[in-house]
UniProtKB/TrEMBL annotation, chain B:
The lineage of its organism: Bacteria, Pseudomonadati, Pseudomonadota, Gammaproteobacteria, Oceanospirillales. It is a multi-pass membrane protein. The chain crosses the membrane at residues 20-38, 45-65, 71-93, 105-126, 146-169, 190-212, 252-272, 278-297. One of its GO terms (biological process) is D-alanine transmembrane transport. Pfam families: BPD_transp_2. Belongs to the binding-protein-dependent transport system permease family. LivHM subfamily. CDD domains: TM_PBP1_LivH_like. Keywords: Amino-acid transport, Cell inner membrane, Cell membrane, Membrane, Transmembrane, Transmembrane helix, Transport. GO terms for molecular function: L-isoleucine transmembrane transporter activity; L-leucine transmembrane transporter activity; L-phenylalanine transmembrane transporter activity; L-valine transmembrane transporter activity. This is Branched-chain amino acid ABC transporter permease. It comes from Salinicola endophyticus. The keyword Membrane applies.
Length: 375, 304
């Protein structure tokens, strides 16, 4: 599937390129863009989704005549496997292939160490999904986050739980940069709002048995559980919580709002809430995008597809605005993003290069799929 | 929840976890007993067993449904398939190395582990596979204590498998041969025992038990992936060492003790759940320091 998608991508961009090119001048050279995404490993579903959406954006740009007066975009992908070590290898490889810019970045833990690599190589980087606040101080100045950060999500979570009349909250994370960051931010915000954190727990990635943890949560008198990590283990936790008769509210962070959560947790996922970035289904502007994506890849776009698509489009916009492939000019152009409407809403940046607004929505699991929650 | 309820609940949970550890630990200990090899691929046979059980269930669920009956048949199919895989692995990877230094065969075992893991990685694309069953969430509620029917069936199945193994080893001809080979291979050969066949049977049974644990874990937890064998392989090894590696009853005991330790370890005051594994492996170190032969192991001069 991955290889086939990549090959298809290369074949289609190559075909377009051949059709457009006459004699090869420097002006006709393709513009190489790196795509950093986890296409294997536990988060592969999201990674392939991002790769698809970025490929779709690149194909559309190429079909309209490319960038800088006719230069086509060629994509090269680097698989991070959501693993800090593998992501460093992938980023080094992309940097050595002299990419003009990099789009992607999922799993904050795996994205963080790549910031230095792209910073040293002075490559503009549009981070489309990773949103830990720990990325902000690690950013050498060349990276831009178009997803709202963990702090925005923590605020959405606190407002949601408080609105449900909950006082005692159990927070569970997995000890990686993303889920720990979200857990810490939520704990602090929850306490600051005058409520009680009755359990603050941690589970090992890949662990299957959460029975002891579930007992501890039940024993703590928690009225709600907030899982801040990813869907694969989250699905197991939700299942075991409900199996053991936990009746309270369960909510999961944006790493868990995949449709696959319903596969793993089954009926237990009914009535579970999720905080989500703007997914295609809830975006009025995304109708055309959904049908194009569906037609091309024969599957519905996943939660990060619109952001990934926007990331590629934003990078292309910045290259055209810079008028060259010069890194400093592109970084300057990205920084000047002016609140223009994209698929997932307007993009403009704070001085720390984070999105200048919160884009989180609350979803509820109903009949095996996510629907927009209306309080 | 009173401390009393909480104690009973952890006891029940510890038993479930311990049953998985014990079934996997048995394979470690049997193989070690017979050819003195720490079969590091054993955790991955557990993973392979989970996928084989998943495949088996999709085959039979049309006829038998995806309830306990279907899962039971799928489990038998998985035991058969992975048992045969265990024998093939022994033939191809370990048999030619039996005369080689012990370190070489240990490295071969690590290689087999990587081969199985990466084969599963490329076949599944590294994705989680949902193990869909029709098992309900029902159970016995005694006050605050909750034990699901699934847990009861699971522990009972594990107990039946372990009793069957104990009977096989202590009462049958092949079981006797297995114990004899564990003590002195050369002498057995001289007395006309087909040592290769006994080793093959040992691998078949050990791998089959791992597959049984894998299938049950898949059905119980609801999702399987290529890396699921790593942590449990490590913990089952710990269980085998605690019980005394090479001893079958030791492996069962070690598995149950480890399951209980983990379950209670999460609840030690002032120590959070993040310390659970530290606690588990600290016990392993203590056992190795103070009783290197484990609880039921016999002392032997040469050790790996």
């Amino acid at each position: 599937m991955t290889m086939r998608t990549i090959l298809k991508l290369i074949a289609s961009t190559a075909a377009l390129h051949l059709a457009a090119s006459g004699p090869v001048l420097a002006q006709d050279e393709p513009i190489t863009i790196g795509v950093q995404a986890p296409t294997t490993g536990s988060e592969a579903t999201y990674g392939k989704d991002m790769l698809n959406a970025i490929g779709l954006a690149a194909d559309e740009i190429n079909a309209k005549g490319g960038l800088l007066g006719g230069r086509q975009i060629t994509l090269v992908s680097g698989d991070t496997a959501c693993d800090p070590q593998q992501s460093v290898n992938a980023a080094s490889r992309l940097a050595s292939q002299e990419v003009v810019g990099v789009v992607g970045g999922y799993c904050s833990g795996a994205t963080q160490p790549t910031l230095k690599i792209y910073g040293d190589a002075n490559i503009p980087f549009v981070i489309v999904a990773a949103n830990s606040t720990q990325l902000i101080p690690a950013n050498p100045g060349n990276a831009f986050m178009i997803n709202s950060t963990g702090a925005d999500q923590a605020k959405t979570a606190v407002d949601f739980f408080a609105g449900k009349g909950i006082d005692k909250l159990a927070i569970v994370n997995q000890g990686d940069a993303y889920s720990q960051d979200l857990a810490n931010l939520t704990r602090d915000a929850w306490k600051a709002a005058g409520h009680e954190v009755s359990a603050f727990e941690y589970v090992n990635k890949g662990e299957q048995d959460f029975s002891a943890l579930v007992n501890k949560i039940r024993g703590s008198g928690a009225q709600a559980v907030f899982w801040t990590a990813y869907y694969a283990d989250g699905g197991l936790l939700i299942r075991q919580l409900r199996q053991r008769g936990f009746q309270g509210t369960i909510a999961v962070g944006d790493g868990s709002n995949s449709p696959k959560l319903f596969d793993i947790a089954g009926r237990a996922a009914e009535g579970v809430y999720a905080f989500s970035n703007p997914t295609a289904d809830f975006l009025p502007a995304a109708k055309q995008f959904i049908s194009d994506y569906q037609a091309k890849f024969d599957t519905a776009p996943g939660p990060y597809a619109p952001l990934a698509y926007d990331g590629m489009q934003l990078m292309a916009w910045a290259i055209d605005k810079a008028g060259s492939t010069d890194a400093d000019a592109i970084i300057k152009a990205l920084g000047s993003a002016d609140g223009k409407e994209w698929l997932a809403g307007p993009i403009s940046f704070t001085p720390q290069h984070t999105l200048a607004r919160s884009n989180f929505v609350v979803l509820e699991g109903q009949d095996g799929k996510w629907t927009r929650y209306q309080p | 929840m009173t401390w009393y309820d909480s104690l009973l609940q952890q006891l029940a949970d510890g038993l479930v976890l311990g049953s998985f550890y014990a079934l996997v630990a048995l394979g470690y200990t049997m193989v070690f007993g017979v050819i003195k090899l720490l079969n590091f691929a054993h955790g991955d046979l557990y993973m392979t067993g989970a996928f084989a059980g998943f495949g088996g269930l999709s085959l039979v669920s049309g006829v038998l449904g995806a309830g306990w009956l279907g899962i039971f048949v799928a489990m038998l199919l998985a035991m058969l398939a992975v048992g045969c895989l265990g024998v093939v692995i022994e033939r191809i990877a370990y048999h030619p190395m039996l005369a080689a230094p012990r370190l070489s065969i240990l490295i071969t075992a690590l290689a087999v582990s990587l081969v199985l893991q990466n084969a599963a990685l490329s076949l599944t694309g590294g994705q989680y596979t949902a193990f869909r069953t029709d098992l309900g969430f029902g159970g016995l509620s005694l006050g605050n204590l909750f034990i699901s029917y699934n847990q009861i069936v699971l522990v009972a199945t594990a107990a039946v498998l372990m009793i069957a193994l104990e009977l096989f080893v202590s009462k049958t001809l092949y079981g006797r041969a297995m114990r004899a080979v564990a003590i002195d291979k050369d002498m057995c050969r001289m007395l006309g025992i087909n040592v290769s066949a006994v080793i093959a049977i040992t691998f078949f049974i050990g791998s089959g038990l791992a597959a049984a644990a894998g299938t049950m874990a898949g059905a119980y937890y609801g999702s399987i992936w290529y890396f699921m064998g790593f942590l449990i392989g490590l913990k089952a090894f710990t269980a085998a060492v605690i019980g005394g590696i090479g001893s079958i009853t030791g492996a069962m005991l070690g598995g149950l003790i480890l399951g209980l330790l983990e379950s209670f370890g999460t609840h030690i005051p002032f120590i959070g759940s993040e310390w659970k594994d530290v606690f588990t492996f600290a016990i392993l170190i203590l056992v190795l320091v103070f009783k290197p032969t484990g609880l039921l192991g016999k002392s032997e001069v040469e050790r790996m």
